[in-house]
Amino acid sequence: MTKTRQAEKIRAGNGFVAALDQSGGSTPKALALYGVDEDAYTSEVEMFDLIHAMRARIAQAPDFNGDKVIGAILFEMTMDRLIDGKPSAAYLWQERGVVPFLKVDKGLEDLVDGVRLMKPMPEMDALCIRAVDAGIFGTKMRSVIDAASRSGIEAIVAQQFEIGRQILAHGLIPIIEPEVTITIDDKAEAETLLLEALKRHLDTLPAETEVMLKLTLPEEAGRYEALTRHPAVLGVVALSGGYSRDEANRRLAQNAGIVASFSRALTEGLSAGQSDAEFNKTIGATINSIHAASVAG
């Protein structure tokens, strides 16, 4: 019953998916933007303690609830920790009405043929079993497209769907994320090739199987609209990809059927030094703006 209710919430799309899944490589930058410099911690353990405190603070903000935030993507260490005395995934769903997802990729390979594939994930089955036990609804895995290479993009999408089928076998919904880098000169062409590859692979999924997609906001408004209507797609979310929150929201509002899944744009303006009142006011305004752009279409 819980899974059904969670799927209905995601399918309705009346809000956005918060990305609280900064990995070890991106955590120092995220903390720096939050006003915590690298000299504030002396080990990886302390670093992850600090980023978890930031994530927990966001999750406990009054406006961070299922009315506008329909889902949240967690880092593995976040799944394994507590928020307000409860396991993180249980806290999100039971206390906030927010559907929990888990980041499962282990980083990127070097650039080959214009793309960066995901590194091998030999422990995927074990991680999926842990995720199910923790009450996780779905997963997210990211790879990167740096050029409009047809063969490279096909390799990216094929890898995403191969691992996606493995995740589906555990009863989890995979978020497939082939990110197109926003600064490349041939971004629009890369998006056309990506759309073609995604359609082909979606058509190969068994009947009544559903996945989600997480895509860079496109150059052409409505570029991915057909994907939002595909029977194998539970929902399409967009990453901010380095755009400012205002620019990300502007682009998002032009793409009907797609909702946000922002990370850096979500935490923009937040600071460890803010009082709880200041922090909650800032994150509340951010949530309102991202929600408005997500439902504008």
In percent, how much strand structure appears in the residues? 15-25%
Cα(first) to Cα(last) distance is: 29 Å
- Number of DSSP E strands: 11
Rg from alpha-carbon coordinates: 18 Å
Helix segment count?
A: 12
* Category by helix and strand content: alpha/beta
Structure description:
This protein is of the alpha/beta class and 297 residues long. It has one domain: Alpha-Beta Barrel (TIM Barrel). Helix content is 44%, strand content 18%. The protein has 12 helices and 11 strands. It has helices at 2-12, 27-33, 44-59, 76-79, 88-96, 124-134, 150-168, 187-202, 225-228, 245-253, 264-267, 276-295, and strands at residues 16-20, 69-74, 82-83, 86-87, 99-103, 115-116, 138-145, 173-180, 211-216, 233-239, 258-260. The strands form 2 sheets. Strands 1, 2, 5, 6, 7, 8, 9, 10 and 11 form a 9-stranded mixed beta sheet that branches. Helix 2 (27-33) crosses helix 3 (44-59), helix 7 crosses helix 8 and helix 10 runs parallel beside helix 12. The protein is globular and about 50 Å long.
Give a summary of the structure in a few sentences:
With 297 residues, this protein is an alpha/beta fold.
How are the SSEs ordered, and which strands pair?
Layout: H1 2-12, E1 16-20, H2 27-33, H3 44-59, E2 69-74, H4 76-79, E3 82-83, E4 86-87, H5 88-96, E5 99-103, E6 115-116, H6 124-134, E7 138-145, H7 150-168, E8 173-180, H8 187-202, E9 211-216, H9 225-228, E10 233-239, H10 245-253, E11 258-260, H11 264-267, H12 276-295
Parallel strand pairs: 1-2, 2-5, 5-7, 7-8, 8-9, 9-10, 10-11
Antiparallel strand pairs: 3-4, 6-7
Helix pairs in contact: 2-3, 7-8, 10-12
